[in-house]
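Database export, one record per block. Field names are fixed; values are copied verbatim from the stored entry.
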Amino acid sequence: MKGKTLLILRHGKSDWGTGHEDFHRPLVDRGRLGSQKMGAWIKHRKLVPDTVLSSLAERARATTETACQAMGLPLKKVLWDERVYAAPVADLLAALADCPKNARRVMLVGHNPGLEELIDYLTAGRVEIPADGKVLPTSALAQLEMVEDWASLGRGCATLVSVTRPGEVPEQPPIEEVNDAELGPVPDYFFTQSAVLPYRQVDGKLEIMVIASRKGTRWVIPKGVKEPELSLRDSAGKEALEEAGVHGRLDDEPIGHYDYEKWGGVCHVAVFPMDVNESVPEDEWEESHRERRWLNPRKARRLLDERALRKLVDKLAKRLGKR
């Protein structure tokens, strides 16, 4: 019997402040981006499912649609099943049992605690609990392997191969894994990005903020993929809050652009200056594992890798009359 793969994707981070009932709670921007990243990661790892089984709740539906777009998977491959919403293990197993028998790879999109309980059941508890106590946080993806048919999944029938969180997805896959016959392992829109050049003036002197990369190996500015539903400027503002923990006034137009190679292609980045007026406290900063520094323009440009970005630091300093 050929092996089967079960991908379990928890919905992205949702918005608790809308006043909607639980079933209708939408994704926040971070949740949508997490769904995009995991869909792109699935495509890159060549794990695109034959069938997707999804909850009908709004946050799960949006997660499924966004991830499928990133994978290049048509929505006709999705089975929308009301049993997956707020489901115990028994209901999840019943929904999986109705998947096509010839599907070798199925992705289940749903909710906790049911998804974590399902992983515990299928692996007979052979799961290492992370330090934060969350086996499957929002937008995380679990990969399980088994040989049983979908209709006969029993306790302990599967092996947990991996659990991947959006923050753990490499910024750039190894170049030898890129298929040159394709545009890359991610959708076309991932190559359109925006960034923020954060600045402030203290006692009449200009300071630029730089932040550590995710791996802490170099200094960068807040930058990310333009989300389909946001403008370049708004996407840049979101990245400033998430990656650098800062709010401020963004210029209406970018101060310039730069390109860099990634995912087997070239990313085009629009850079928007931000006059920072507030820094989020460390305990509220989403990516507080990074380090952030305020530096004079000369020191900031010396730390930044991108030559074109260093020129934009000079351009901003000249515009503000500060060197």
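Remark 1: The two ends are 69 Å apart (CA to CA).
Remark 2: The chain is about 25% helix and 25% strand.
End of record.
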